[in-house]
Structure formats: C-alpha cells, structure tokens
Amino acid sequence: MFLSGLIKDFSHRKTPNDVVEVHPSNTETAAEMETLQHLPSPSSPLTVKTMGEFVHHVDAVMERTHHGGGWLLSGIICINILILGCALVSSSAFNSVAITAVHRQIFLIILLLLTMLWMLFYTIITSRKNQAVLFKDSHAGPVWLQAGLVLFGLLSFLMDIFKIVNYVGYLHCDSVVKVAFPVVQAVFLFVQTYFLWIHAKDCVQLHTNFTRCGLTLTLSTNLLVWMAAVTEESVHHTEIYDLNMNISYNYGDKKCKCSHSACDTFEEAFYYLYPFNIEYSLFASAMAYIMWKNVGRIVEDHSHHKAKFCPKEVRLGPVMGILLVVAGIATLILYEVQILKEDREKRNAALLIHFIMNIVIASLMCLSTVIGCIVYRLDHREHVSEKNPTRSLDVGLLVGASMGQFLISYFTIVAVVVTGARGYLNALNLAWAVLTVLQLGLQNYFIIEGLHREPFHVIREAALHTNACALQEHTEIDVVVDSNRPNYFLTLCPDKPSWKRRVLKEVCAFLLFANVILWIMPAFGARPQFDHSVEIFFYKYTMWTAIVNIGLPFGIFYRMHSIASLFEVYLIS
Amino acid sequence: MFLSGLIKDFSHRKTPNDVVEVHPSNTETAAEMETLQHLPSPSSPLTVKTMGEFVHHVDAVMERTHHGGGWLLSGIICINILILGCALVSSSAFNSVAITAVHRQIFLIILLLLTMLWMLFYTIITSRKNQAVLFKDSHAGPVWLQAGLVLFGLLSFLMDIFKIVNYVGYLHCDSVVKVAFPVVQAVFLFVQTYFLWIHAKDCVQLHTNFTRCGLTLTLSTNLLVWMAAVTEESVHHTEIYDLNMNISYNYGDKKCKCSHSACDTFEEAFYYLYPFNIEYSLFASAMAYIMWKNVGRIVEDHSHHKAKFCPKEVRLGPVMGILLVVAGIATLILYEVQILKEDREKRNAALLIHFIMNIVIASLMCLSTVIGCIVYRLDHREHVSEKNPTRSLDVGLLVGASMGQFLISYFTIVAVVVTGARGYLNALNLAWAVLTVLQLGLQNYFIIEGLHREPFHVIREAALHTNACALQEHTEIDVVVDSNRPNYFLTLCPDKPSWKRRVLKEVCAFLLFANVILWIMPAFGARPQFDHSVEIFFYKYTMWTAIVNIGLPFGIFYRMHSIASLFEVYLIS
C-alpha cells in the first residue's frame, strides 16, 4: 500500500475524479482506490516542490506497475504466440508438403480476428469511460510514425485488393483460405490504422492487465505477419530465380489455371507491393510496443519547452542536402530505367552510377558527422539527467533498426573480399559497404549523443528566468546545481548566436536530407543487391534473399527514424 | 556539473580518497574530479536521511553514466564484431569452398588474443591502483554462475586437449591453424576463467570507457565462439547422419589420413565435449554482460538483510524432490544404456520410459507451481519498490534463457501435430512438449513474482525494530508508508510461522530439485530429440540440429539459473 503515501501529499486537493485503476495487482483494495481519487488532474497547477515529490512517488508506482502480473502474463503470451508462429512459418518454408501456406494463413486469420476483437473492445471501453486514459505520452507515436503507418497501410491495402482479385481466379481449384486471408487482412489494416492513429499516445489506466495482453497480442500478430511476408517474399524470389522468370506456379497444383485473364498482371503487381506490407508491420509493431510500455504510466503533463523552428538559421546544410536529394533522384530514375534493359553493358553502367552516387552520399555524410562530433566536444553541454522512457525506447529502436543495414553491409563485405573483389563494380560495391558501416556507426553516435545533451532552449529559458545575463566568454555555460533540483544560471546572452550551434544545425540539416535520399532509393525500388550477382553466387539465392528481405525493411525504417531524430537534434542544438 | 550537488551533502566528510573517474564524458573537468574526493567510502556509516539523498544523486549520475560516450562506443564495437562474425560463420557454413573453417578460426584467434591482452591490461591496472574498483556488486557473478564457469571451463579445456592431439595427426596434410586454434583457446579458457572469477563483481570506476569497450569485446568474442561451436556441431551432426555413422572426413581433403592411431577415438571424444564448450561461452557471455552493466555504477554497500537458511522448516517438498531426482537418474541410466542398442524395440522402450518420466516431472511441477501462485494471491505482500538493476538483469536472463526450451517444444508440437501424432511415442512426445511449455510459463511467473515480493525477513526486521507486535489475524500484514521512505509497521508475531510461508517454501524446494533433475538429463547426454525421428524427418536434419543446438544449451542454462533463483525465492518467502 505504497500508494497511501500519496494521500499525505495530496489530501488537500479533492478533484472530483472517478475511481481509476493504476496498480494492476492490487485493484481490489479499497484503500488504494481511494488514494487515486486524490490524484491531481494532470493540468492542475502544482508548486515545483510538490510536483517533485509527486514525480518521485509516481516513479516508484511505475516501477511496481511494470513488474505487476499483467506485465509478466502479457510477456509470456507474446513469447508463446511468437515462437509457435515462428515454428509454423519456418516449417511451411522448409517443409511445404506437410504445412502449406493455407495452414499458416488460417493461423494468421485467427490472430488477426482476435486482435481486431480486442481493438474494438478497447475502443468501446475507452470511449465510454472518460477516466480510462488520464494521461497521454506526447513523445509516443510521433508524426513520422503515424504518417508512415497510413502511407504503408494504403499500399498494403492495394496489395490485398490485388491478391483478392488474383486468387478469386483460382477459386475453382484452390483453397478458399487464399481469398479469405487478404480479405481479413484488408479489414485489419483499416481497424489497426484507425486504432493506432487514435490511441498511440494513450497511457491506459483502466484494465491495465487486459490491455497489456491485448497489446502484446497486437505486437505478436504484426511480427508474425511481418515474418510470414518476409518468408513468402524470399520463397517467391527464389522460385522466380529458379524458374528463370517463369511465374505462375506457387499454387500447389501446377495444372491449376486462372479463370480470368488479368491474373498474371495482378500477381506481378502484388509482389511489388510486398515490401510496403513488411514495412507496415514493422511500424505497427513499433507503435504497439511503445503503447505497451506506456500502459499504467503516469506522465507529467509537462508544458513542453517548445523550441522554435527557424529555417533561416542555416543555409549551407539544407542547400547541399537538397542538391544531394535532387542528384540522387536523377540517378535513381536513370538506374531504374537502365537496369531493366537486356543489354549487360547498360545494366553495368546503371550499377556503376548507383554505386558512385551512394559512395558520394555516404562519404559526405561521414565527413559532416565527424565535424558534428568534433563540435560536440567543443560545445560542451550537460547531459539531460531526468529519466525519459520514451527517449530510451527511441534510441533502442534506432540502434535496433540500424542492425538491418549493418547485416547487409557486412555480408556484402565478406562476400566481396573473399571472392577477391575483381572488377571495378566489385570494388565500388565493397567501398560502398565499408562506408555504409562507418556512416551508420557515426550517425548513431551523433544522434544519440545529440538527443542526450541538455537542449539549448531549456538553458536559454532558465537564463531568461533568472535574468542573469552577464558578459563572460560568449559561449561559456556555467551551471550551478542546487542540492534539490537543478536550476541553471546561465552566463550567455540569449540574442548572440554561437558558431558552434550554427555548425551543429547545418550538420543536422544536411544529414536529414541525406537520409531522405537514402530512404527514397530503396523505398522506391532500387535493389542493387539483386542486380549485382556476387552475393547471390556466394550465399546462394535463398539465403541472400532472406538477408536482404530482413535487413532492407529495417534499413528503410532506420532512415525514417533518423530523419525524425535528426530533426529533434536540430531543434535541441 | 550535476555532481557538484554532491559537494553540499558530503562536504563535511573528507575521506582521503584519490581522484576517481565516474562520469566518462566529462573526465577532464577539474571541478568534477574534486567532487569525487568527497564521496563517502562505501563502508562509512551514514544517517538514513543522508543515505537517501546520496542514493538519489547516485541514481542521476548512473543514468548519465549509462549514456556516456563509452557506453555508445562499446555498443557499436560489439554490434560490428558480432555482425561481421555472424557473416563469416554463416558463410563458412553455407559456402564451405570460399570460406573454410581455417578463415573462421584465424578470425577467432585474433579475437581471442585481443581479449586476452585486454584482460591482462585490466588485471594489471586494477591491481596497481587500489582506487580502480571502489564498489563491488554483491549480486553479480553469483556462486552458481562461477561454479558453472569453472566446471564447463575444465571440460572445454579437455576438449581442446583432445582437439590438439587429434589435429596434430593431420599436420602433414592440413593447415597448422587447426592446431593453433585449440591451443589459443585453451590458454584463453584459463585467462578468462581466472579473470571472471576475480573480477565478476567489480564496478569499475577507472578508465570506464576503455573498460566498457574491453568488456563488449569479451562479450562478442564469447558469443562468436558460441556461434561457431553451434554451427560446427550442427554441420558435424548432419555429416554423420549423411554418411551413416561413417566418421573421418570433415578435413577438406578426404585423402588426408591421420598419422597416429588414436585419432578416431579422440575425434569422437571431443565432439562429445562440444556442448560443454557451448555452455561455457554462454556463461562467460552472461558474466561479461553483467560486468559491462556494472561499469561506473556506484552501489550502496547495503548491509545485506541476510535471510537465514533453515532446512528444518520444510519437509514434504525436499523429500518429494529428492525422490524425483533419484527416480530421474535411474531412468536416465536406463535410457542411456538402452538407446545404444541395435534393437529397435529396446530403443523404443528407452524412449517410452524417458518420455513418461519427463511427463510425470513436468506435471508435478505444474501442479506445485499452481499451488504456489494461489498462495501468492492469499499471502499478499508488497512488491519491492527500490530499483535493483542486477535483479532486472537476472529476470531478463531467466526469461531469455527459457526461450531455448520454448523453441524446441513448439517446434516439436508443430511437427507432431501436423504429422498426425500416430503411435504412443508421438502422443507422449506431444504431451511432454505441451507440458513443458506450460511448466516454463508457470515457473517463470512464479520465480519473477517471488523475486519481486518484499522479503519476509525485511518485514520481520522492521517489526522487531518498531516492537509493534500486536495480535491481529496472525498472517495479516499491514504496512504504513511514511511520505519520505517506507517504514514497515508489522502486525505479525515473528515466532509464529504462517502456513502460507511454509507452503511457499515447500513449493520452492520441490521445484528446485525438479529443476536439478531436468538439468541433469540433457547435461549428461540424454538427447531424445535425435533418438526420436519425427522432427528430423519433418524439419530435415540440418535445421533440426540447429534448433536443438541453439535451444538446448539455453535450456540447460535456464535450469541452472532457475535453481539459483528458486533458492533465492525460498529465502525470501
């Protein structure tokens, strides 16, 4: 009954709230229920002192909440669904006689239906009781994640439509499940996108145990859809390769003919849309995971230190960046046109241009990141000391997503080095892979270090607050810390911009645009990994397809995440 | 300069400590150096109030330290070594022409030498400066981990000796690297076991950045040795299977004959010892990871609330448990003898006994865990609210290790269900797998919930302290929380043992022994996964070997970890 400590602090405030469940394992205890009636409503003004104590207590509650029964139960459910699904998916890939795509799809349909049921239940509950969601995490479900979800959701929907039309043509000789699955998935796409759009920022306080389990169900469903799509795509790639571009089997019985003429077109079309579905599942998984972490969390409704975005502050970085994007798009179009030609010479020329362009981009990025890191050393600032679970999660997702590109690059390096890297194309491919590894490491360092530095506007606001604008060295920041909570006494004139901050902002802006073009290229179909044959020969087709299909979506996710993070670093600097 | 806050609290204490580095990114700042001179020596007595503030500050420092440059850099190094190694190991498995075992071993030798160099450097530095390790984490490197490390280290050493003797016989026609690798590995085993034995509990404060990088190097080296061993073992299994028990190739050139007669014996012997080497690498990885987490950490030297171990308290649980262990060992011996017979009938009988024994064990464990969980509900206690990184890590390792057994069980379930589970052996196999999944889930819940409950002896001590021994319901615990720090006023007579606590202790003791027998069986060679053929046919030999070789060592690790955790839960209850 730790929560009863809250009574002492807040017994003088009686906000007319209903009873809210916060601590999942002790919900029945009447005493605790009572204490929560005394919780301050998030918007009510509190003295700094009381707020500090409040946050302290809340932290303790959070810690306990995280280890409650629901946390554990939902984790166990997630592990079980995932490993069972993993067994099904991989056995359908390795032993397609005993477990067919139909078995796998029935399993996925059940999961999709269960998840939708839970989402409907959740939406109804939270819309009825206005105490269900007292707190919102403003960091969760950022704009780029939501926009990406809708974009990839629409393209996945298109894929499902194509699939339905295609498989309807096989209905007379193939299982009805093949049509049912895309139908259910299409409905699921709408329900889930709506659900995540509305509820991504929720810190649920009601039915926390049940909500946790529902969210891990959502998480594991999305991960399994992702896993199934990756496997299907790899198998399909291998089949095309094996049959030398002779599509139209994959339907168990090769004698099964499509009953309408548009089949082939639709089938080719929906396979092009697979990567977007893979990406959609990753986005949805990330958002479900963030929501799961936020269940039962009580966040301070801190009046965000909004940093203003002044695009005039920088010039060189954005200009260089936009030039790079334009050049990148030009070479991408050239590449896409030339790579489809029959002529081997022209295809090599396309690869040459693509490789050189990527090497130039990666080198420039490495260079500017190094400059940025040096400026970090010079422009020494405090690290933010307060805890921020969303930021830790953000950093975790960033580093995790970068693994995908790391994986592809290292496999390329090994393949090219071992085979001797003969010919200029192999040498360029190697250089690109090495530079990418370097660039990823540097950029991760730059972003994470940047996110953890004390934001400039916070220091500035503190300075304005204390009116302590003395004239020392114009960039020296001297912070004196009170024993209780940090107050910043700043010796910096707020209207004098420092060159270090300008350089950092230029670097951020440049890296942001560079990541945009590195996102555009793979997202819009550039696949040099399959157009250049070294890795395919070295690792065999199936394995290399699996590596690329796992690594590339993470790589695309990483670029989008980097863009958002770099924008944040830009604002902080 | 948040640390300067420490000055205020502790400026009255001037312990003659040297300058110690705590915060990695600001090490050069003289002001911070100074503050650390005022850190209290860990053993010095402090008032509770001051201690509370101290811990508060330390937490903030920790948070920052964790996100320092060294943390990031060491993470990036770890990722790079791991993914590069992963590419090398998997390409040596999938493309044994271009990348041979020799390439892989050269890479591993370099890593082993670098790791040893760092370990020597670390040992010398810390032995010279007595300020290098100010704090020790008493939870890190527990006895079972250290004992396991030494045990598996010795068996791995034996494996290396056998390898050396074996490969010396091929020296005239095979690479010298094949002999060099086990030699280096044998030296490494000694250096690393010594290093981890001495330093596992260190919370390093000196050269934190460098130490972090060294530890991630150790971590990734061990993980790669593990990965290489798993791959080699899987390839070897597949080769034996393919060649129908005709050993003596695997040395590139099949014409290469061993120059001494004992080769075949030694080769067979060292392949039997592979699982122990795999286990050793896992243990070392876990310990290196814990050390890495502890770098720069400042731990309270809290006078451990030592719970006494009174074996007389319980009777039924240990008796049942020991009976189970004896019965298990008897059936194991029977199994090992019978399974080697040529007669198919006898082999099936051996499998039958083994399956039934395991089903009985798993059922009894499930039953007792359910009883334990019900008692948790009845004997309601507070969750521990203070933060404990080692405990979180412990829980993470436990859940992570349980994945191995989950993986094997679910793959078995899918294979048996899909093939129809004909025959009593398949039915028993299925029942065993389902019960194992259930047992793992329940046991994880039981242990984690148990570890997070407020220890009984803490409540008891608080009760003795406040001398508040009133007579209410003899098991009702009523805790009142002060607004600053929790003080427990207990309404329980310390000399009156509650039946709930007795039941919990009985359950813990029984589960402990049951885990012992479940550890003994796979650790001493029972491999029904390979003696029973359903999964091999279903998944093909290579894939199934890989699954078992990855899953089983984690399963063994899990059992040992469970034993240690259950002992802790026993003491707490």
Provide a concise account of the structure shown.
Two copies of one chain form a homodimer. Chain A is mainly α and about 575 residues long. Helices cover about 70% and strands about 0% of the residues of chain A.
Describe it for me?
Chains A, B: This is Otopetrin 2. Chains A, B: It is found in: Cell membrane. Chains A, B: One of its GO terms (molecular function) is proton channel activity. Chains A, B: The chain crosses the membrane at residues 71-94, 106-127, 139-159, 179-198, 269-292, 313-335, 355-376, 397-418, 430-448, 507-526, 538-558. Chains A, B: It is a multi-pass membrane protein. The structure is a homodimer of 573-residue chains. Chain A is mostly helical and 573 residues long. Chain A has 3 domains: 2-65, no CATH class; 93-294, no CATH class; 311-471 and 491-572, no CATH class. Chain A contains 18 helices and 2 strands. Chain A has helices at residues 4-10, 30-37, 48-66, 69-94, 101-128, 143-168, 177-199, 208-242, 263-294, 316-339, 344-378, 389-419, 424-452, 456-466, 499-523, 528-531, 534-539, 541-572; strands at residues 135-136, 202-203. Chain A has a two-stranded antiparallel sheet. In chain A, α4 runs antiparallel to α5 (101-128), α5 packs parallel to α7 (177-199) and α9 packs across α18. Residues 1-67, 246-253 and 468-496 of chain A have low confidence and may be disordered. At the A-B interface, α1, α3, α4, α12 and α13 of A face α1, α3, α4, α12 and α13 of B.
